[in-house]
Design brief:
The protein has 255 residues and is an alpha/beta fold. It contains eight helices and seven strands; from the N terminus they run βαβαβαβαβαβαααβ. α3 runs parallel beside α4.
């Protein structure tokens, strides 16, 4: 979205976005920053962090970048501690980190792949929030990034889809646990052409098929996902908690 069309719903707010140096995570951080938030971005590699910080600063965004592999306990704690040390509070946490180490059927998947899927896609989201929760301000917001595959796990992404289904339940459970001072919601993106999904979206035949499955006849953009995330994180959604918004152009398997 053009900068001139973006509001300033996050003035004075501090937002952490995990896995945010490219793709959907980067677009979310950019959107929150353009709306006035001080954004804390992170990923596994320092070079990626430095490059993303530079891009955001060029747009006038207040940004702080840290290396954080979400499965590393010390790096998670450091992400929270450094954020609080620099900005004094946390208003928004967007849990975006995900992995898909295998396309094997569930019953043929190696235990190491099962462990990684559970750890990165579900467990680390919980552990990060355990560290962050003492610092969440009143009226704060958490947004999990799930996937349309949470509702109907496709054969090639079956276990990945199951972990994303778990995030829907986690959203419900934490919305109750953290009420009334913190809202917890979820965005379930459809297929978006990113590096993470390149093996699907770079295949012209598969891409065309995916586009045809949507009512809007196109794949989503990272900006589409950022807009929905920003809405849920903002005070515009102040009476919404425990909910999942599917952002998939009408390609949904639920009523």
């Amino acid at each position: 979205m053009e900068k001139s069309k973006i509001g300033r719903r996050f003035e004075g707010k501090v937002a952490i976005v995990t896995a945010s140096t490219q793709g959907i995570g980067f677009s979310i951080a950019r959107r929150l920053g353009l709306e006035g938030a001080s954004v804390v971005i992170s990923s596994r590699r320092q070079g990626n962090v430095d490059e993303a910080v530079e891009k955001l600063k060029e747009e006038g965004i207040e940004v702080f970048g840290l290396v954080c592999h979400v499965s590393n306990a010390q790096q998670r704690k450091n992400l929270i501690e450094q954020t609080v040390q620099k900005y004094g509070k946390i208003d928004v946490v967007v849990s975006n980190a995900a992995a898909n180490p295998s396309v094997d059927p569930i019953l043929k998947m190696q235990e190491s792949s099962l462990d990684k899927l559970w750890e990165i896609n579900v467990k680390t989201s919980i552990l990060l929030l355990q560290d962050a929760s003492p610092h969440l301000s009143k009226g704060s917001s958490i947004v999990f990034i799930s996937s349309i595959s949470a509702f109907q796990p496709p054969a090639s992404l079956a276990m990945y889809g199951v972990t994303k289904t778990a995030l829907l339940g986690l959203t419900k459970a934490l919305a109750t646990e953290l009420a009334p001072h913190t809202r917890v919601n979820c965005v379930a993106p459809g297929f978006v052409p990113t590096h993470f999904a390149s093996y699907i979206t770079n295949n012209k035949t598969m891409r065309k098929s995916l586009e045809e499955q949507t009512s809007l006849k196109r794949l989503g953009t990272t900006e589409d996902m950022a807009a929905a995330t920003a809405f849920l994180a903002s005070d515009d959604a102040s009476y919404i908690t425990g909910e999942t918004i599917v952002v998939a152009g009408g390609a949904s398997s639920r009523l």
